[in-house]
Amino acid sequence: MKRIAVGLLAVVAIGVAAAVTFQKQIGAAIFERAAQGGQGRDELASLPDGLHVGLCGTGSPMPNPRRAGPCNVVIAGRQVFVVDMGENGNRNLNLMGISAGDVDALLLTHFHSDHIDGIGPLMLYHWTRGTRTAPLPVHGPEGVEQVVAGFNAAYALDHSYRIAHHGEQVVPRSGGGAAARPFAIPDNSATVMQGGGLTVTAFKVDHDPIKPAVGYRFDYKGRALCISGDAAKSANLIATCKGADLIVHDALQPRLLAHVEAAFAAQGSANTAKIFRDIQDYHASPEQAAESAQEAGARMLVLSHLVPPLPFAYLYPAFLGDAPARFDGTVVVGEDGMLFSLPPQSTAIDRRTLM
User: Fold this and answer.
1) Which is nearest to 73 in space by CA: 57, 88, 53, 87?
2) Active-site residue, from 114, 117, 206, 250
3) What average pLDDT does this structure show over 256-271?
4) 3-state secondary structure of 301
5) Catalytic residue list contains 350
6) What is the pTM of this model?
């Protein structure tokens, strides 16, 4: 019996070794095929002419494994702009098949940490994926110079390492980092960029006590979209976004957030509970965002920067509340990877996901 048992163990050991070897071979083959198919995917090359907006981040500072921090990518023809760059936004751009090397500029709405904490990776990939010879332009209201200077200082050593390792043919010394492009808004709105058939308008929004805080309107070939940044219900947003086809608006549902606040208070975390109470007065609720979209005459409202986190779609109706009843158009709860396309001289809005 002992010899039989030893023999069986030997057979089992041989079988396990063979299985491991087989798994290695299959795993290596799968990885090779995935690498060949996934690396360098270029969604921009297949996009038709028009105005497009992709959601590279729909989350907030609250932890949510399904959502990156606030991040939007706008494509107008062959021009590519990112609006805000929250944590993991650059990761999502890559997963969406949009290379940071193709980004023409980053536009910031304001300087809350969750809207800027992904700038470092975007700068790096803009430089290394595109072999750029000039830094990433970063447009924003007064204060953008300080933000950009901080990231440049933080990444200075990293840049020196990469130049030394890869050489200037791959990573030109002049292309690293970012360059601040500040703008002023003397009144309520101002054109901050124009060219190639595209006009970009920055407009003031209500995000007190955070000032300056702006949103952006993009007009291209008869189509228009607005991105609110962070904003309470704002008369200036409604006025500037009149006639826009689509509005991407931040949204916070106070009824749901109240439960989070109460939970922290019950745990004795009074400071954290106060933070969750404080943030309710400078973000629009889904209902208020719907009212703004209705007053602006938009066709579609896409909610982003979602507070509190929504780990699964079953929660969407509770999050939306009465929003659908306050807007005649389509209300969409944004998810990372969504892409909305507005063909020229049309009323259509096409939607698909890139992740």
Assistant:
1) 53
2) 114
3) 89
4) strand
5) no
6) 0.91
